[in-house]
Amino acid sequence: MKPAYEALLGRLKSARRILLWRAIERAGLAAIVGLLAIAFLALVVALLAPLYRAEYSVLRLALLGAAAVFFFTAVARVLASEAALSDAALAAGKLDGDREDELLSALELSRDDPERGAWTSGALREAAVEAAAARAGGIELGRLKRWEKRGRWLGAAGVALLLIGIASVVGGAKTPLVLQRISDPRRAPKAPIRIRVEPGTRDVEGGESVALRAYVAGSGRRPELLTRGPAGWRESNFGNADGAEGARRGERAYSLVLRNLNEDVVYRVRVADQETPTYALNVRDLPRATGYRILYEYPAYTGLKPEVSQAITGDLAAPRGTRAILEVSVNRAVAKATARFEAAGQELPGQPGERSARFSVPIRADDRYSIRLEDQRGRRSDLGPFDLRAIPDRPPTVTVLAPGPVEDVARDMTTVVLAGATDDHGVRKILLRYRVRQEPERVEVLHEEKEGARELAIRYTWSLGGYSLLPGEEVEYQLGAVDGDAIDGPQTTWSDERRLRFPSATEILASMADERDESIETLQDALKGARELQQKSDELSRDVGRSRELSWEQRQEIQKTAEGQERLREQIDKVAQKLSQDAEKLSQSRALNAELVQKIQELQQLLSQIKDQNLLRSMQRLQEAMKKISPQEMERALQNFKLSQEEAMKNLERTIEMLKQIRTEEMLEAASERAAEMERRQLAVNDSLSRAGQKDEVSKLAGSEHEIAKMADEERAALDSLTSELKPLDSETAEESSRLSQKLGPQGMQPQFQRTREKMESGEQQASQDQAKDLAQNLQELRKSVDKMREEFAAKRKNEIAKKMEQSAQDLLDIASIQEDMLGDESSSLSKRAETQKGLQESTEGATNRVAEVAKQTLFITPDIAQSLGRALSNQSNAVGRYSNQDLAGGITGSKEATIALSQAAGGLLRQKESMQGSKSSTGMQEAMEKLQSLAGQQEGLNEESMGMMPSQGEGQQGNSGRLREGMGNALGRMAAEQEAIRQGLEEATQKLGQNGGTLGKLGDVSEDMKKVEQNFRSGRLDQDTVDRQQRILSRLLDAPRSVEKRDYSRRRVSRPGVDVVRSSPGALSGDLLKSRPSLAALLARGSRDPIAPRYRATVDEYFQSILEGKAR
């Protein structure tokens, strides 16, 4: 189909270019005609009317504006024209016959993607495209260039040109002059305007109002008054004079009153482009200030350069120690100037100048002062009083942008501190003050500025790995800023106290408990709402089916139904987002449970599917039907809406049940994590006891023991809640949970905790060690019991689900067998066949319901099983109808299709059952991780063999170009086969995890690299590029398991403003650290930061303990 498609596409592109050129031609002609018409009118006006420079300027601007408008209008019309391939197909189709859409249909068929499931066959699309290509080849595309009214537009353009020519000829010698003035208005003469102003320049008294009169001859425009101010010339308009007094012949009188003049006024009058000379109204008044100029000479400690400012008052404000040079501008010359200070009781003489007075004012303390000016005639004028403010040095401010006030430590035990500090005269240092456990506070300098900076931002990567934090411990810290005040001494400001917590998996899981209950409650409300919407849609469907047209009330009810559906989507989206956040939070835990994270992620994907596929599509169809306002369309849309609701309710029920299971698993996981953490802390306390040398050191450990006792109480309460949760699910596990809870109660370890703490408080080291050792053994047994209970519960659930899946598969096989027997029975009548088929359909419905119940308990029931069951029920229903209508052939076809679908569903159930039983986790992730590690080991061995076979340096210089020595061909063939086996294993692992919603599907480029290595080996090439490619393959295989455990569930990106990057290097190691052996607490803290599964963490702790005891091999 490619040649035909290319031929069709080529013809359609040619048609599109013709259409685009036609649009350009049409828009261009219209713009040219309009512009010629405007030019004709402008020429006529310029020839007939006596115009001057101002009028020619307006005329030229009008022509330029019209040209711009016509140009952009033409561009807009071209852009809005029909220039797509589909438009070209329709236009070309109209040129040949009545089948106008044949070319468009062929174009759309050729764009269908077969892999996404096209609704037509490939042969039909190919035939349609070939026919359209043949038809397009016979169409004369040149006819598309023709368009209606083309001749009229050309005629209009000719007429406009003719009129312009006639006007030019009639204008005679004036025409070139007019054209020159239009192109350059400065060549035109100014309008002969005469302006006379009264009173012109004169002296006035302060507060007097002056009436200005302007007499204008030669223009009817209203004159404008221009007055000069600090910001330049300000415009105001004259009004008509009340009378014509003082006006000469041909003059018009205008007037304007300037009221309450207290300052000199410099003014002139303008009419059009004519202006009068500048006049002044001088106010006869006492000496007064017209402005203040202040020069601040700052002291050295501020680090500021001298600064000049203009002010409207004499108020002074500057840092203490500043000298202010104040220059007062006055309206006339003064003979003497004095500054008087109220609080100090002093007078400071000034330096009189030409209409100015200068003062040098030291700023030491807050005060008020006034200025006395005296003119030549001895008249005095007092200015002020003014404020004199000595600004003290303010302390710096510090803002911490990240981390938050209370934030968890990341997996790599580092945190990035983003902070900013400001100071009025410059920040010199940024400090970090922190406390770890009960240790003394420490202060570190993160950054230091030699000259100081008013604003300073830092980014500091703080490594917490050296503090040996245990889960549940925290670091308290503050950020500080220090300024450079040299007068009162440096000032330091500290931020609010913040905390960095090392959360345990127990805390994370416990924080999710209430959120999980809230999610279940939200989904239950959504399920209830979905049922109500389904019932309402049934009633509306019946009402609409009996109506010929939709009433207003029915449309309102349908609209309410759609709004209810939108609220339902919002509820589901809220839960889906919460699940995504929970999965991300759990994945950041050092005790990562990859299986639990995978389950939560798959539930989030299931909710997203309900929201986006089921509910959104049904809403869209319902809204489309409402727009058509057709009862038939609305009835069909409501039926589809009902089906979508049913599917959504099934998925919601499944999600709710799975959430309940996850809640139980999280409770078990939290109990296991808390038991392991209690044991780990007790081991650390025991190690500290063995190191204690004094009684007070032993007494201090009583607080740590008390914290472990509190955790034991929390564990006991959690086990009690777990007992209530497990009673309806597994009575044996519930009894075991109750037994373990009693073990932590008053009859168990609770008195033991009390005795141990009392011995520690009294400082009895040996007795405390004995008690603590027994307590550690009991906690170890508790941890093992909790882990065993959790693992046995998971195994029981898996076996029960596998048994149900096997029973459901056997039921489907039995139904399929009876279905086959019915097909082989040729003696039964059609009515008997219909009755039998109906019974099989009911049996299949029962089996489907049982499979649906199993699907609520496991994620191994895949969508293909549900689709097979749906096809079976549909074909069985179709067969019943065919048999009932005496259609034997149709009934047999439906029965056969139903038999095939039942067999496929049963096979899928059995395969998924075997996968679930053979997997160590419900998602198969652990097996994929082990497979990847095995493949990485095989790849590493193959890489070493390749490196050993590389030609030596001398051989490489002989021009072999990567060719191996003679006799190495067999070895390369074997290595190619090994590389192919590794690639196939990788593809199987990625395919398996890809079906379960994993993230290993991004290793496709590694598979391509493997194929290239295979090709090189088979062609006898082994060069440096091949070895480098093998190293990249190995690196990706080693990184893949870590990338799965560290998923990025959030796709949002956070943007922050840029900051100055400052890092401080760690200090040198202390010599004592190199001499002494590490404590057990440090080893346990180091091990707890590694991403170890909970079931293996206790083994790691035991290993660290054995190292200290000298038992490790």
From TrEMBL:
Compositional bias of kind Polar residues: 838-847
Highest taxon of the lineage: Bacteria
Transmembrane segments: 27-52, 58-80, 153-173
Compositionally biased region (Basic and acidic residues): 693-706
UniProt keyword list: Coiled coil, Membrane, Transmembrane, Transmembrane helix
Coiled-coil ranges per UniProt: 523-613, 642-681
Region spans: Disordered: 685-706, 726-772, 824-847, 945-967
Full protein name: DUF4175 family protein
Taxonomy of the source species: Bacteria, Candidatus Eiseniibacteriota
